Task: structure prediction
Amino acid sequence: MKIAYKHLLRFLKDQPSIDDLSLKLFQLGHEHKIDDSIFDIEFTPNRGDCLSLYGLSRDLNIFYKQNSDIQISKDDISDLKINFSNNANLDCPKISFLNIQIKGKVNEYKDYLNSYFECFNLKKNNFFTDISNYLAYELGQPTHAYDADKINGEITLEHNKKNEAFLTLMGEEIIVQESELVFINDGEIINLAGVMGGMKSACDENTKNVLIECAYFKPESIIGRALKYNLKSDASYKFERGTDPDIHEIALRRFIQIVKDHAQIKSISIFEDNSYKHTNEIIDFDVNKINKILGVNLTEKRYLEILKNLGFVIEKDSIEVPSFRSDISHQNDLSEEVARIIGYNEIESQEFKINSSCKSSNSEYGEEKLKAHLINHGFAEVINYPFSEKNNGQLKIDNPLDSNKGFLRVSLLNSLIDNLIYNENRQKDSIKFFEISDIFELDRKTKDIKATKKLAVIISGRQGHNYKLFSKKLDKNYLIDLFNEISIDISQYITQVDRQLLKTKIKTPIFAIELDLNLIDKNINYSKAINKKIKKDFVKYEKVSDFPSSYRDLSFLIKDPSRVHEVTYMIEKYKSETLKKSFMFDFYDNKDSNEIKVGYRFLFQSQNKTLTDIDIERELKNIINQILTIESVSIPGLK
Amino acid sequence: MSQKSDIILSLNTETDTGSTHPINNMKDHIVSILCSFGFEQAHGPEIESEKYNFDMLNIRESHPARQMHDTFYVDEKKYVLRTHTSPVQIRSMISNNPPMAFVSGGKVYRKDDDATHLPMFHQVEGIYVDENVTFSHLKDLIYKIIYSLFGDDVVLRFRPSYFPFTEPSAEVDILSQDGTWLEILGCGIINPIVLENCNINTENYNGLAFGLGIERIAMLKHGIQDIREFYKSNLDFLSQFK
Result:
């Protein structure tokens, strides 16, 4: 919520600087940003009482003394004869209608009213709607202004009986669903209760006879409704977080006063329907309990001072919670109030030590060893979302993100296939992935959900990027050998993924396994598996390029074998912005001539663009020029 | 000749090392820090009942988190994909007697998908229930956790916040190098309503709780700007965490 610094100052007797105020707001838990002397405050959802100048200044009272002297009308108000039926008093136990008739012209807005619109760059609507909007900002109580001349006959508050079209005062037509809380007049919806009024009964610049609705709606009756109809409503935001049921009279008298400040009033009358049985919460006055929760030594005097300044009423041994603090009901709530005023950062810490003898858990021991084994063999661990589009009797998500993510996967393999294709499309020619995750199924007998921990592994392409593995393909035997090393026979679980079903032109075979981790966990030979290490050196990540990579191969003839290391060293040390990776993919030892031939692959990729042949050739030339400075090294066929 | 065979032998023919997913590595790192403080690791299901995910944690029916737009509901609203790891703590508190200290980490789900929010992310949470647990003990624990993660010279601040399951509640920020405050974790004194829901005698016992978002910590530690990178399974990304 946006609150202007200069407006807030009007409600504080002391006049803190904006920086001091900002610090205190943080201390009280009102996180915010400041832009052009306007606080944009993210109030926590339990603090509906702070959503106004009046409410926030009340929370700041202990620091800056609230100026609670609000100018309100003290006029006598006659009874309003209105035909109103409240058929939903569980949702709205308290509601008033105030009728104001004015005569003559509306004068120019006074500074306090005008400043509200100017400060936030808000469009003025009409006199009464403008007051209603300002009043919500000033006091936190939403009101709705109907043009009384557009209301005919009975008004009812009820849950509507059928879906019905409704044109909001913002000009949006929505279909209000059956059972929504609405105000009805003359057989039509005139207000989506607690959210937004309708166009038909809205005030305009000619309105002289206004009916102000001032209601207390229970938060649970309003929550989620603006979002449901995609409406932006300050009123529902406030009602959802709880408004003060005891503020209605002040709010309506303040409304009258603002009207009086700008126009001549002909008549005022009021109707109230009140079935709200509210008794303020009572909590024991127990400073020792507060000290025990916080670990502080607060005196009774200081505790009393804090509570009184926050609006609590203290009588002997009990504390009465004010009507605007519906979030307070027990000692821990009060301890938070105290901590906010002391300042969380001012509470000294005391040494934390666990007294219980905690057992260390080793339920994931086998899994950790298995992961370490796979990672040591070049596998990358992936984590995938559990959502799946296929419906083979899987558990259904009632409200999926989109229709092709409507079920919970029962196999990890499809996710790994997607991961593999994604990387093949990024010119990766050696892919080894694994994932360990629970899958969920409904046990048809018990009707309970059964979780099974699965391991899935997928491989395709070259075994590795060195001259011994480059020409070897990842295949079925590779997987068998990999698991044999830890004494697991997985041959029966290996499947070859059918490439024809995938959107890819690559022909390299794909092999995969997927199995219930519990099936093999007991059989893993731990002595042969290495221990998993948690990495504590957190590498700085380099942004992954979105542009394609290209490679070039070079073959070097080295007449003097002792120079081989100079070649490999120079290539390893060669750095440039576009050379991403290089590795020796071929090594030939010509025993007859005593020469060595090495093949190197250079992978190029830019962070900023798709590299052209010219870019790559330029970089390659630099590499060649450096390598050829080594004696006895040549590139056969180089022009 | 022997010189040549030495050259061949010394050439690098090792397979490239693979990589633990950076999120799992961070989760393990945080859990291991907490285990070194004496916390015991606990596990729980990712699909939960509303009772464990919401009711027992004092998250009432009217709370925004329970709306269909925030939570994934499963099987005709019989279950939810857990929205936090807190139900694991509830299960631990029900099946154990104080004093107890549990830590749990894992996947959680929220119905969200944009540049800064994912439908699945990871949390680590801990609870400690004993006699005479105070907010000042909680502060000391939080300092220890944050110093272990970010070093002893990091500047941090506590802010009041709101969680239905803790009271008082706090959020903790650290001061970044550019002078801005970054939110790191949420914590608080366990709301006695929650303890009572778990049949713990609140006359004798109270507790503290805290929770961290793993993606956020991993992003800070590795300098990752876009949270979506974690789940693209891009080898160019994953291979950086060897």
User: Anything to note?
Assistant: The mean pLDDT of chain A is 92.
